[in-house]
Amino acid sequence: MKRITITLGLAMALAACTTAGTASPGGSAGGSPSMIIVEGVSTPQSIRDKGTLTCGVKFDVVGFGFRNPTNNEIEGFDADICREIAEELGVQAELIEAVSANRTPFLNERRVDLVISTFTVNAERLALMDFSRPYYIAGQSILAKTSDTSISSVADLNGKNVCSVTGSTSEANVRAQAPEANLVLFATYTEAGQALNDGRCNAVSTDDVILFGLIDAYPDTELKGEPFTTEAYGIGMKKGSTELKTFVDDLLAAMDSDGRYEELWNTNIAPYTDKEPVLPPES
Amino acid sequence: MGLFGGLDANSQLFIQGYFTTITLTVAALGSALVIGTVAASARVWGGPVVQSFVRGYVEFFRNTPLLVQLLFYAVLLAPANLNITRDPMVAAIIGLSIYTGAYVTEVVRSGIISVDPRQIEAARSLGLSQLEALRFVVLPQAIRTVIPPLGNLSIALVKNTAIAGGIAATDLLKVAGIIESRTGGDFTPYIAILVAYWTLTLPLAWAVSRLERRLAFAR
């Protein structure tokens, strides 16, 4: 009986490998062959036919994607851009939570049409997916207790407990710039903020705009030093979404020129930054 | 990480996660066995107050979710509260030990009461002291009864360590998540950790079945 059980188990493992392997069309995504990739891409027409535009957004980042606890509405710049695109397409906007680690799989598995989720454009990601033109420029910063004077730059993170989130560029940036830091990785920024608050970490490091929300929640914290990276946020799409990318890029440019971009900026981000509400140039 | 210096960052991280899972399992199993044996003895031979205390312990920890317990310890032990540790590993080991200890208590208790109390009377009447009676008559029989369920508990414990990632311990499951996101959604790390968990649980299952046969009553 035991032998049968083991054989069955191994057979299942083998099946899992094979399935995952065949699901990816011959490395067309430039990724590993074992990535789960569902065929096809969303186009403006396919979204109109479906009647809903599904966007993956953050639910815990104040200013970008945040579930308002009083009415359960998802608020923020990212959420509003999704609604704007949906309106332009004449469809309903459906917002689902995409935590950092979920963003790429959600696109590849076609569970969302767009990821608008404080998603930094970088070379590795450009090999795996398409991005719209950047719509916001953030920078990675350090948040620590106001009373903590031992941290004033990224180098001071060496030897400290630094909280961040799995699957974010922040994690890699800290590893690169403060290799001796002890990274404590949570799934969401809410958890990282709680850990900073009760002293499990000395600092939380991620994009400044995300940290603004944590300062709101924990007033005895502050940003330390200047941002040490530049993070251009783009709207993520499945690799090969040429039509959808053109549509989104054109819409962003139109929103910039007719004032809709500035309006969304003023309602969502203005309280947290003194930057000018202009659409970053195409890179 | 001098020993694994030649490997790339993801493989190093994977090995680190593997050892984290082993550390969690071994440390928690050791303490759970101690907790469980002491608590079970107290439950069987202790006074009424001790007995109901142990019963409360078992029912409380068996009937609340492990993740909730771990989150509770992580926050409770943090510098802002009891200031005992900020290390998620320590909180995870404490949580897993107390949780698994509750199950071990019940297993060991059932082992003890499976031995007919009249055997103690018989042993005593043959001139053995109370301790000798426990050591040479009750325990050898009780251990035979509890080995299979304890083996199952150990296997369950290996699998329960996967919950420690919820409080940011870098166990195998957490590592798979980190590697997956670094490599842009590559599913391979999850297959790798499945195999890694098997390398821990299958030998355990095999060892338990061997022990079981060796300790079996000649019937």
Q: Given this structure, which CATH class of chain B is correct? A: Mainly Alpha
Major sheet of chain B? none
Q: Quick one: how many beta strands of chain A?
A: 15
Quaternary structure type: heterodimer
Q: Give the overall average pLDDT of chain B.
A: 88
Radius of gyration of chain B: 21 Å
Shape of chain A: globular
Description:
- The complex is a heterodimer of chains A (283) and B (219).
- Chain A has helices spanning 2-23, 44-50, 77-89, 103-108, 123-128, 169-177, 189-197, 208-217, 242-258, 260-268, and strands at residues 52-57, 60-61, 65-67, 74-75, 92-97, 114-115, 129-131, 136-138, 140-145, 161-165, 182-186, 203-207, 221-224, 231-233, 236-238.
- With 283 residues, chain A is α/β, with parallel strands linked by helices.
- Chain A has two domains: 44-137 and 232-272, Periplasmic binding protein-like II (D-Maltodextrin-Binding Protein, domain 2); 140-229, 3-Layer(aba) Sandwich (D-Maltodextrin-Binding Protein, domain 2).
- In chain A, helix 6 (169-177) links the parallel strand 10 (161-165) and strand 11 (182-186).
- Mean pLDDT of chain A is 84; it is low at 4-33.
- Chain B has a single domain, classed as Orthogonal Bundle (MetI-like fold).
- Chain B has helices spanning 9-45, 48-62, 66-76, 88-113, 117-125, 130-160, 172-182, 188-215.
- The longest helix of chain B has 37 residues, at 9-45.
- Chain B is globular, with a radius of gyration of 21 Å.
- Chain A binds chain B through residues 2, 6, 9, 13, 16-17, 20, 31-32, 34-36, 100-101, 104-105, 108, 124-125, 127-129, 161, 163, 166-168, 171-172, 184-187, 191, 194-195, 197-201, and chain B through 74-75, 78-81, 83, 86, 88, 166, 168, 170, 174, 177-178, 180-188, 191, 194-195, 198, 202, 205-206, 209.
Explain briefly what this protein structure is:
Chain A is α/β, with parallel strands linked by helices and 283 residues long. Helices cover 38% and strands 20% of the residues of chain A.
